[in-house]
Amino acid sequence: MADYNRLASMIAHHGEAAIFRRFDTLNIKNLLYMQAELVHLEAELHQIENDERSSADPSKDLYPFSVHDLRASASGSSVTQWTKYQEIQSKIQMYKWLERSEGGNFFLKGREAPIWEAEDDLVSLDSRQRDKDALTSFINEKVVPWYHRRWGYRTKVKLCKMI
Which of 32, 56, 103, 144 has the lowest CB atom count within 10 Å? Predict the structure, then answer.
């Protein structure tokens, strides 16, 4: 009986079968949605800040200067600057890209730190080699497809039999 365990085992033994969809359109759409959501949250935060700035409550005068007072305001049931900020903060963490120096600079510690050190267990989801030399480009784009059309199609391994 074929199942995910057998499929995973087959892929682990035949690295050339480790082919996965990147879901580029979905990932880009997800980033666009997160970006749009952050824009709306930012506008909501500015509105809350303006409302609290014009409030008659003197304790709110300290919010622009004291994170302690701002955090203490979150104890009530209404949406405050601090609760809106926390919502924004969680969205931004999802939006950031870990490898960018301005987005985290590999801040991982403990068990998470060596994740990218397992060189034999990594996969790149972007196989496009933008800086290929001319010979490599020629072989990849002309010779390999020509070979597969001419003879290579006869030597394909049937993956279904292996699973």
Answer: 56
CB contact at 8 A, 10 and 16:
no
Structure tokens at 22: 């990147």
CA 46/CA 14 separation, integer angstroms: 54
Q: How far is CA 160 from CA 1, 3, 8, 17, in A?
A: 12, 12, 13, 12
User: How far apart, in whole angstroms, are the C-alpha atoms of residue 124 and residue 105?
Assistant: 19
Question: What pLDDT, in 10s, does the model give residues 110-134?
Answer: 666 666 666 666 655 455 555 677 8
SS3 helix, strand, coil % of the chain, rounded to 5?
70, 0, 30
Task: Say how far apart CA 157 and CA 160 lie, in whole Å.
Answer: 9
pLDDT at 163 over 50: no
Q: Calculate the CA dihedral of residues 64, 69, 71, 74 and round it to 10 degrees.
A: -100
CB 18 within 8 A of CB 11: yes
Least confident of 32-36, 50-54, 80-84, 118-122: 118-122
